[in-house]
């Protein structure tokens, strides 16, 4: 029996991998190894001027796991898909040329959890039509979320959301203008987790990105899963999400 792939979790802006703990714990209990990425932009001082340091952190984790011979499922949340896509530039080149490194694993699937789908040369700000959202608090090159309880955790009680809100750190605003040069979702099998009560990336925006993706690459996002969660199903619906992630890893469900 083939060994289980490892999960690499790339969180969104303002968040660390610790926010995924309710889901990560269930995956580990099911026998999976989890690698959480802490963005260089997470509380960076001074703030980053682009997403390059985030890209490098993710690339280092990906290369370390693949070079160990393990297969990988990438899990992107929100902003995490932006540097997460660019981190796969070399992997994409190897796919195109057929130059798979001896002894290396492969990326089995990408999972976009209420995450941004960008074409080559796109940016998070371009998806927002270059307008700050009403809940953005921009202070120079730093950005924080206003009302995070409502925007990120509207399906949690105030007491349950409180520790997650306290753990948020400023994000580097200029990373939102960085542009991935590759769109790995076009060629690597991908799953999209639609969160119907997400107020950070509302349902019409998620569905609009999926429509764009299917127009550009008809075979992309061959699996679409839907739930009633807010922007953070890894906290509010960990059992459901872990089941879908295990399915994405080829474990059924």
TrEMBL record:
Residues 8-242 form the AB hydrolase-1 domain. It holds the Pfam family Abhydrolase_6. GO terms for molecular function: aminopeptidase activity. Keywords: Aminopeptidase, Hydrolase, Protease. It comes from the Eukaryota. PANTHER family: AB HYDROLASE-1 DOMAIN-CONTAINING PROTEIN-RELATED (PTHR37017), ESTERASE_LIPASE_THIOESTERASE DOMAIN-CONTAINING PROTEIN (PTHR37017:SF11). This is Prolyl aminopeptidase-like protein. It comes from Hyaloscypha bicolor E. The lineage of its organism: Eukaryota, Fungi, Dikarya, Ascomycota, Pezizomycotina.
